[in-house]
Each structure stands twice: as C-alpha cells, then as structure tokens.
Amino acid sequence: MIEDFHRIKRLPPYVFAEVNALKADARAAGADIIDLGMGNPDMQTPQHIVDKLVETVSKPRVHRYSASKGIPGLRRAQANYYGRRFGVKLDPDTQVVATLGSKEGFANMAQAITAPGDMILTPNPTYPIHEFGFIISGASVRHLPATSGNEFLAAVSRACRHTVPKPIAMVLNYPSNPTAMTAGLDFYTEAVQLAKKEDLIILSDLAYAEIYFDDVPPPSVLQVPGAMDIAVEFTSLSKTYNMPGWRMGFAVGNERLIAALARVKSYLDYGAFTPVQVAATAALNGPQNCIDEIRAVYKGRRDALVGSFSRAGWDVPPPPATMFAWAPVPDQFKDMGSVGFSKLLIEKADVAVSPGVGFGEHGEGYVRIALVENEHRIRQAARNIKRFLSQAPDTLHNMVAMDQQRSA
Asked: Whole-structure pTM over 0.85, yes or no?
C-alpha cells in the first residue's frame, strides 16, 4: 500500500499537536490548566434557541433527510439578516446556502471552484481552512502578509503580475482570526475594484461579524456596489449566538458561485439535522438582544485580560473585535519561538495558548489568546503568568544549562 496518500502528504504536521499533548499530560497529572488556546465558546446558547430545538425534535417528520442547501425558512431568515444588518438584498433561493459551519462551507467552496494547480491568494497568518481547504482541493497558495489596508491590496496587485499561473481568487478575513484585525468599507471598495480589474473571485470570511468592541460594526464586502458579481461571504452562528457545536453557517453572494457550492454539497451531505436548522431560523428571526449580551461578555473578558496581563508584565494589545487577542511573545522568550513559549506557559504557569506559527509562518513571534474563560479565571491566569515572568531569568538560565548538558 502507498505509504502516504497524495493529499495527506500536502498537509504539514499539526502545529498544535505538541501543545495539546503537553496540556493533556499536565491535566492527567492533576494540574489546573487555564485553557485559553482553542476558540471554543463556553457560554450557554440562548434559551429560546434551545427551546425551539426541543420543540421541533419531538416531531417524527423532522427525523428524515433534510435539505442540503438549507430549508427554505432558514435561507429566508439569513437573507433577512443581511437586509437589516448590512442593507444587502439577497435572493434566498439562489444567493444563500446553509453550511455545516463556515469552515465546511469554505472547504466545499474550494472543492467547487478550483482545479489542480490553480493559484489562490491568502493572508498569512490566517485561519487554517483558508489555506488548507484549497491545498486539499489540489490548488496552490500564495501567502500575503496579513494587513487590512493599502499594503495588502498592493501585495495582491503584485501577486497578480508576478505569479504563474495567475491567481483566480483571494481570501479576505475581517475581523481576522487570529489577528483580530478589522477592515472598513473603504478597504472593501478598493478590494472589489482590484478584484474586478484582475479577474479575481473574492471569498470573504465574516464569522466574527457580531463580536466587535468599537462603535462601528464590521461591514460586509457585499455592501460594495458590484461585489455581488464576484464575491461570496461566509458567516457562522457559532460565535454570534454561542452555537459552536450546532455546526450552522452560511455562504451568500454571487449566484454562480453559490450554485457551484450547492451542487458539490448535494453530493456530500443532506444538510444539518432539520431541528437544528429550525432552531437556527429561530435564532435569526427571534430577539437579538442576546447578541448584545454575548458581545458584552467578550468585551468584559477582553478588558480583564488586557488589564491583568499588563499588570503581570505582559503587554497584550486590546483586540478591536473577535474572541481572541493576538499577543507578541515577551522579548526574553522570543528566541524559543511561539511553540516553545506556549509549551513553557503550560509547564510553568498552567496556562494554555495557541502558538502563532500554527496560523502561518508570519504568525511566528505571537500567540493567540482565546477569551473562553470567565474573568475570574483570566485574572487567575494573569497571576500565574506574573509569577512565571518573575522567575524568567532563573527559568531561562536553567534551560540554557540543560541544553549545554545535552550537547556536551
């Protein structure tokens, strides 16, 4: 049998595996690990959404196969959401597809639009599916340093001039996972103009549309006149309504691209369990004050983290959006890299974070800190880190001594 399958060989070793293994070992040994690594929302799904699921699941007819592209009522609810939130008019029959989370939607869109050897432009660092969804599909990827201004668009322009074969699509992700970077409507306007000039498809990940802390909500690329000609946008209910395990997301936008995605999905799945889709419809159509409450919790956690970590001796820039902080590795630990520093935090501070290099080589020197513990636990993490940093000279001295002994 072939030792390594072709697509598997194209996937690098899982960067987070070492950190996850160390975290599991520490917990098995009885350590109280404060896990700020995985972006797994910890709050309760709003009760009216849960109630709708319970109400629906008792009906025998909903246990049959569902609709791959989403039940009509759910697609109408998503179209209505775009209308009231962004002022964007969508046809629920031709411009909306319900996906099994935005991650699955992105991966299946990659299957739908790329041929082996096609070139895709992705920011770096970025959420892994933005890159590996295309790599699994047989495409090639060119990385562009992740920014949200003219620098990024200038890099896109250069890539279109100097890359062979010429790129067919570019990925945008604002608010960004992992960097929490945001973009305004002016940026999207220029991005659409450039994409039309270079004949590029725009794939926009807007999963954190409702987790923002400034006064101005993040816009949608589809608000730009003409964007519907070339763009598809992916959203998710995971963070907006605290529904990560429900696996419900959407792709909306250009009819031709949405039709391609729907056709691929029709071969792969029958859609989410119907009661989940009905409950997701209730989320979109029901009271929206729960979104404000969820956002306020994340803001409180953000402020607690930034303040307490700063007092502990680790300056963390306050993220303007998302449920993550993108923090530089403290200077005294930079030489060990983000994976080494993340492992050391588990060993010496009982705190887990995600190494930045796991999101691309340009993420080296940073770690991603998820706001998935309550404020009390965040402050406890800060106390652990303060103690760890105060012992840093001895820790580094001992590590150097051990390295010298091993090399002797």
From this structure: yes
